Amino acid sequence: xxxxxxxxxxxxxxxxxxxxxxxxxxxxxxxxxxxxxxxxxxxxxxxxxxxxxxxxxxxxxxxxxxxxxxxxxxxxxxxxxxxxxxxxxxxxxxxxxxxxxxxxxxxxxxxxxxxxxxxxxxxxxxxxxxxxxxxxxxxxxxxxxxxxxxxxxxxxxxxxxxxxxxxxxxxxxxxxxxxxxxxxxxxxxxxxxxxxxxxxxxxxxxxxxxxxxxxxxxxxxxxxxxxxxxxxxxxxxxxxxxxxxxxxxxxxxxxxxxxxxxxxxxxxxxxxxxxxxxxxxxxxxxxxxxxxxxxxxxxxxxxxxxxxxxxxxxxxxxxxxxxxxxxxxxxxxxxxxxxxxxxxxxxxxxxxxxxxxxxxxxxxxx
Length: 366
Ligand SMILES: *Cc1c(COP(=O)(O)O)cnc(C)c1O
What we know:
Blueprint: E1 4-5, H1 14-27, H2 35-48, E2 53-56, H3 59-69, E3 76-80, H4 85-93, E4 97-101, H5 112-121, E5 125-129, H6 140-149, E6 153-157, E7 165-166, E8 169-170, E9 177-181, E10 194-197, H7 201-211, E11 215-216, E12 219-220, H8 231-241, H9 244-262, E13 277-278, E14 284-287, H10 291-303, E15 306-307, H11 331-339, E16 340-343, H12 351-364
Parallel strand pairs: 1-15, 3-4, 3-5, 5-6, 6-9
Antiparallel strand pairs: 2-10, 7-8, 7-13, 9-10, 11-12, 14-16
Helix pairs in contact: 1-8, 2-8, 3-4, 9-12, 10-12
């Protein structure tokens, strides 16, 4: 088999991309909110049905800017222990104190009851960052209720959530802020990039200023930084945006094929989809019965040139470089991290590849 990874970067048609790059050449404009960036923001607004959206350099920056704008820098912030490390890094770069919250065993997203427990232990928690892991949806109703009760700022990391919707709305509409990543490994991407969704024109304007050094002309309004998306990145996004729904359809078909081959195996488990979720099929996570089996599956797949990813491993509350007093136990997250494998998934996978991978997993996961 050809080498297979957890995903394969999606490329637009060369001519679509080049036509947009030609526009950039003609405009003589490479960055600073050029016409392609403006068009991409407008297209995203329409597609996601969201009034206020800002593009930026990457998802990690989007989180950092949201934390800073929300006034959470330096404060205690509750965060799920089961996510990509960037969620935590953004918090730490903003000098926040992370309070790790365990996850629900079914959805692998932040557990509202675990959040309530942490709020009793740490009444000074000021904000919460749940993650829509794999593009699945958090228990947004319960989390919203808790955030309101405790006056917490709610920042959703929806880095993997592009194309998923819940009760007819994009996952990016939930929370005081939501961020998405447009990294090359994500279902929709701009090579590197991301966006922030906020809910007032004021927040939009303030964050737009902060994203571009905090000044307009010679008037300096606030402390800013540079998080602007370039025209080249926007060109990639514009060339890929149209095809995203088609990619989701194809990945759905691939996922259904995996399901057909593996769902009946009693030694495998799969995260559940909350009712009302219209899923983006961004990943295909499988829970093996234990870490030894997981390692054996990885070993057997590697021999066939297949390289799935331990996504997310390790649970973030166990990272070596954290202060020991932050490492509160999160048994469900730690358990999931030890036995989840994301199998290769992308639109152009061949049915035979899915069959072969499923056979290896089934053979070993006895
Ligand atoms: C990809 C990802 C990020 C980081 O996004 P970048 O655009 O790579 O900075 C953050 N959180 C999660 C859950 C991710 O999957």
